[in-house]
Specification:
Elements (H helix, E strand, L loop, with lengths): L4 E3 L6 E3 L1 E3 L11 H13 L4 E3 L8 H10 L8 E6 L14 H15 L4 E6 L8 H13 L3 E6 L4 H14 L4 E4 L14 H8 L2 E5 L22 H4 L1 H4 L4 H16 L4 H10 L4 E6 L4 H7 L9 H11 L11
Parallel strand pairs: 3-10, 4-5, 5-6, 6-7, 7-8, 8-9, 9-10
Antiparallel strand pairs: 1-2
Helix pairs in contact: 1-2, 1-11, 3-4, 9-12
Length: 324
């Protein structure tokens, strides 16, 4: 089964249903060799969408991703990075002011060793900067050829609506993608974001689709975790692994096994049942994880399976942020 592709929102850009991110991994606790091999494996398997950010590992993730991807033709992959987070101690070293947006874009391109990025995200909403100022800065980057598409991450439906109205009023490039968290235990985007995206033309590239590893089935107890796992390295994550969630994962494993899938593949296929989801953004510390996750692309779950999953999870499109 080969990787399938979807449009990024209402744009003409095609991105792989499974994309590869570098949050908490590349340039961080994952060994460089495994990080490089994971990117190379993803590319070889047909993944064409790669994600990073200026704040990941204080810029080191951008460097590693850029260096690895430079061996491939630039037109053959889609690369996204972000701006907003704190990158220095100065008063203008964060946020979405024109100054910070422009300077951060140039700094990211330098670290990546590239002339442009395909998608430039606002990593979060900036309540201290006029939205028009931010959007005009993004527009200038597009006109300069440094950015191809504009995206946001974890913005509310109201914030995106306001941005789209400003873009339409001043004929600026519109937001085509939002990057929210979304997985079986966190479904808040189903209530407003997904319907709004379908109506207004922006897609979702969802992060943490496997609940940072919980939906891979590798955790069987919050008291015993694998030495090399994220839970072993991050106490706050370990505390989120509840016995209730672990029990639900065990039931999901049974459903997955009947379909000859892993629980991770089942979880990704469940996400990709949403047409408005352009891509599920995975993290991988080893190439084998990429190989396993990419097999979820193209898997179609029937209504009966979706209903069985719903019965196991027994939740709805409400936010449980803080638990994951």
């Amino acid at each position: 089964m080969s990787v399938q592709y979807r449009n990024l929102g209402a744009s003409g850009l095609k991105v792989s249903e499974i994309s590869l991110g570098s949050w908490l991994t590349y340039g961080g606790y994952v060994e460089r060799e495994n990080a490089v091999k994971s990117i190379q494996t993803a590319y070889d398997l047909g993944i064409n969408f790669f994600d990073t950010a200026n704040v990941y590992a204080k810029g080191e993730a951008e460097k590693l991703v850029g260096e690895t991807l430079r061996e491939y033709p630039r037109e053959s992959y889609v690369l996204a990075t972000k701006v907003y987070g704190k990158i220095g101690d100065g008063p203008n070293d964060r946020g979405l002011s024109r100054k910070h947006v422009i300077e951060s874009a140039n700094a990211s391109l330098k670290r990546l060793g590239l002339e442009y990025v395909d998608v430039f995200y606002s990593h979060r909403f900036d309540h201290e900067t006029p939205l028009e100022e931010t959007l005009r800065a993004f527009e200038d980057l597009i006109r300069q050829g440094k950015v191809h598409y504009v995206g946001v991450s974890e913005w509310t439906a109201a914030q995106i609506t306001e941005a789209l109205a400003i873009a339409d009023k001043y004929l600026l490039d519109r937001i085509v993608v939002n990057q929210p968290i979304y997985h079986l235990f966190e479904r808040y985007i189903e209530k407003e974001i997904i319907p709004h995206g379908s109506k207004k033309g922006f897609g979702q590239v969802v992060f943490s689709p496997l609940a940072q590893g919980l939906l891979t089935g590798k955790y069987t107890s919050n008291h015993q975790v694998p030495d090399e796992s994220r839970a072993a390295k991050q106490e706050n994550f370990k505390n989120r692994i509840t016995e209730e969630k672990l029990a639900k994962v065990e039931l999901l494993k049974e459903i997955a096994s009947e379909l000859d899938l892993t629980v991770g593949q089942l979880s990704l296929a469940w996400i990709l049942r949403q047409p408005n989801v352009s891509s599920a953004l995975i993290g991988a510390s080893r190439p084998e994880q990429v190989e396993e996750n990419v097999k979820a692309s193209g898997v179609v779950l029937d209504n009966q399976t979706i209903e069985r999953i719903a019965a196991v999870i027994d939740n709805g499109p409400v936010s449980t942020r803080g638990s994951f």
